[in-house]
Amino acid sequence: MKRLIAIDGPAGSGKSTMARKLAKALHCLFIDTGAMYRAVTYYLIVNGIDIDDRKALGHALAAMKLELITEDGQVKVLLAGKPVEDQIRSQPVDEKVSDVARLPEVRNYLKEKQRSLALSQPSITEGRDVGTVILPEADLKIYLTAAPEIRAKRRWLQNREKGLTVNLREIQKNVLARDNLDTNREEAPLRLADDAHVLDTTSLTIEQVLTRLIALTEEEIG
Question: Which of 85, 114, 115, 214 is the most buried (most CB within 10 A)?
């Protein structure tokens, strides 16, 4: 059976980590849609594009050389042929990505790229509107969540592991601000799909979450 799994949830809920691990366990393609929005955000920041200037935004999207390549079972994002994984996880991108992701032009630009990749082979796609907009026909929909303070601490630890010094309180403020923007934007807001399975990861280890996700997959898809 061709597996098509959608994992949604707010910032810091563990979507990327768990989707990557589940994809490895099930031998599926892992697609991080958030990385694509981050790449667009990074490009706009670097090039000084005012997102309220829709004409300039349109020109920027047309000129941007965004590539999505499949390597070692996951999709990697390149800009002008260069990997930008470290740059797109920076604090400036964290602060702007929700504003960029709410723009219809950006969502339309990325939607078909994301769908095409996901439907090309058995895949696990994570994001904020995968089960509701990108892949409403997914075989299994999962919504991961966790307490805001836990999600902020996870993001803080990720940054510290990369050698980045960021104030935990600032990250907490940013997480709450992103929650507000993501759930209240007009274009494809973050919301729970009617047929999604909710998993609160607040008090669970990575191994416990993975075990539950694998069990859900076996129950729903086989």
Answer: 114
